[in-house]
Amino acid sequence: MRLSATERSVPEPLRLSRSHRDRIERLLETSRELTMMLKAPETTAAGALAAIVDPTIQEDDVARMPALAIYSGRARLPNIEDMKQSLPNVEATQMTGTGHFVMMENPSEFNRLLTAFLDRISADASERSGEQRPR
């Protein structure tokens, strides 16, 4: 394995293997995510958790509007075919190299995906109504 000049300057007993460096980087990333999460007001977390389990807002209706699901690079993706049963017009994508806060970790890519989605649904709506899109 070729070492950089910086790595060669570290005495052999103190050098970390690649797997150790990867593990440390993952721990640092998790630490950064936790720090961001802890900055959110308590009411934000409480409201989100309450909405997840509130049976009064759980419905089996099909929502036919366009939907965009952006998942973090580490997320386990849900079964898209299952999602399409209640959101038939869903588009799903995954942003590699991101954790829980995709919009804060890579805002330019998040905004690119969101803008492209909004442009597509705006164009589709204009075509259906026969209107010309403003430029």
Can you characterise this structure?
By secondary structure, this protein is mainly alpha-helical. It folds into two domains: 14-56; 59-135, no CATH class. 54% of the residues lie in helices and 9% in strands. It has a two-stranded parallel ribbon with strand order 1-2. The chain is elongated, with a radius of gyration of 22 Å. The model has no long low-confidence stretch (mean pLDDT 80).
Question: Can you count the beta strands?
Answer: 2
Distance, first to last CA: 54 Å
Give the biggest sheet. Answer: 2 strands, parallel
Instruction: Indicate how many domains the architecture comprises.
Output: 2
Oligomer: single chain
Beta-strand residue fraction:
5-15%
What is the approximate shape? elongated
Give, in spatial order, the strands making up the sheet with the most strands.
1-2
SSE pattern, N- to C-terminal: HHHEHEHH
Which structural class do the helices and strands define?
Answer: mainly alpha
Number of helices: 6
Helix content: 40-55%
